[in-house]
Amino acid sequence: METNKPLVCVIGAGPTGLVCLKYLREIADLKCYELKSEIGGLWVYKDTTDDDHKEDDKFYELYGTVHESIYKDLTTIIPIHFFAFKDFPPKKKERTHFTHEEVLEYLQDYSANFDLERFIEFETQVIEVTKTTDGPKDWTVKVKNNGETKEEHFDYVIVCNGHNSVPYFPTEGIEGLDLFKGKILHAHNFRKPDTEDFIDKNVLLVGLKYSGMDILYQLLESNNIRAIINGEEPNYTIDESGIGAKKIILSASTAHDLSQSDDFKKYADKGIIVPKSGSKLEFTEDGVIYEDGSEEKIDTILFSTGYKFSFPFIKDPSLVEYECDGRYFGPLYQRIFSINHPSLIFVGQPDSNAFNQILMERQVMFMKSFIEGNLTLPSKEEMMEHLEKDKKHVEENYGLRNFYKAPFQYTSGYIKELKEILKSQDIEPNEDNKEHLKTLFKMLPIFKETLTSHNCITFQRYDYKSLIPEDHKFDSSEYF
Ligand SMILES: Cc1cc2nc3c(=O)[nH]c(=O)nc-3n(C[C@H](O)[C@H](O)[C@H](O)COP(=O)(O)OP(=O)(O)OC[C@H]3O[C@@H](n4cnc5c(N)ncnc54)[C@H](O)[C@@H]3O)c2cc1C
What we know:
With 480 residues, the chain is α/β, with parallel strands linked by helices. It is 29% helix and 18% strand.
């Protein structure tokens, strides 16, 4: 039925798409296309990897990789309270971190609570988005379902297709990778540690951010992780026969610090993990030579080196242009609105680690206000100027490849900026869930401390609440 509300297309029913639907459900007519048969995006765990994808994998057909990037025993590195959206607190749990099954359950409950599935067309791929005219319903969205294609027209298109599925492999400083005869993997295809790629093997782990660190822990402590998940008593003594990999060589600038942290020192002392830094890796048929000339024999290389942005359904370069080998795209205003056509909107692309949910929900509130007509964007020239300034700052300080995942001190500035924009429109940012935020801010100093001491895993496995002094004071303005 035609109404006078704007007609909005949402691409993807992962966490971001669901939050968009929740916010827009009363002010817009909505259609969400989701290529899978269920909601939840990345949090729908499947064993499938790029090596064994099914022929009818709709994501693979479009992107050339499977969508799945999470592993069997993944628990969130950030605590439950960081994962909650406004108006929907997570159920109380004994443990303070979600397993991936619990994240999915939270998302399913969220969707049911706000009755969101009625907007979703499942098993439907968006294959092309084009700008046709400059009038109303000027976006043409071509979709494919069951082999049939159709076109629909919309006033707004909101892209929520995720950004953690198309693996990035570094090339700079890497030589001879094609000579290497062993197994080459990316974290994207890591599912579990007890496979022939790791058991009794020398593994080179390249990249040690959250995922790299967690995968390292999986390789070293898989039995303990299972025990914790099953509510059993873990046994933290080193039992070398229980360790899958023979030796794990770490290649990252933080490798040495990490090997000296409480979490990993015992393994470094025994030579089970070997830290290496330096900006060059030269591969041979069965090994790697480091910048300092030292050499290690290796069987498996696991790149935990992040992901690329990919929007295969947008072909017009004025809408999406990539830089830094797919790790930057634009031009967007405030990392949300296409500067050339602001009714094309991207949500949930920045990665702020601990604050993804707060950041993404603020983007959604901003976008809602724009669609409602309550918030006018600056002129195209002003938006471009804002972007260029922002790009220059990130490029000079962190490298453009980090534009969508800059360090905390920068990202918190972006989150604050979103808050100021919302406040200028008398919109209450997603801060009114006071009880959650209270817990969250109490944890921040401990979170920061564990991160800087490379004991992030400890933080993930233990009950942090006992670490927070009763009289701890917090001030949210310090962060956002
Ligand atoms: C190992 C790992 C651990 C992580 N841990 C955390 C964590 O602890 N906390 C956290 O906040 N984040 C974490 N993340 C980040 C994760 O990306 C986000 O939590 C979240 O899944 C992003 O939601 P999204 O909806 O933007 O994207 P996704 O979850 O990727 O969902 C995108 C959806 O869009 C659909 N889609 C894509 N293209 C099309 C198309 N053309 N047509 C129709 N549908 C389409 C997909 O099928 C999918 O359902 C982790 C990521 C990884 C890889």
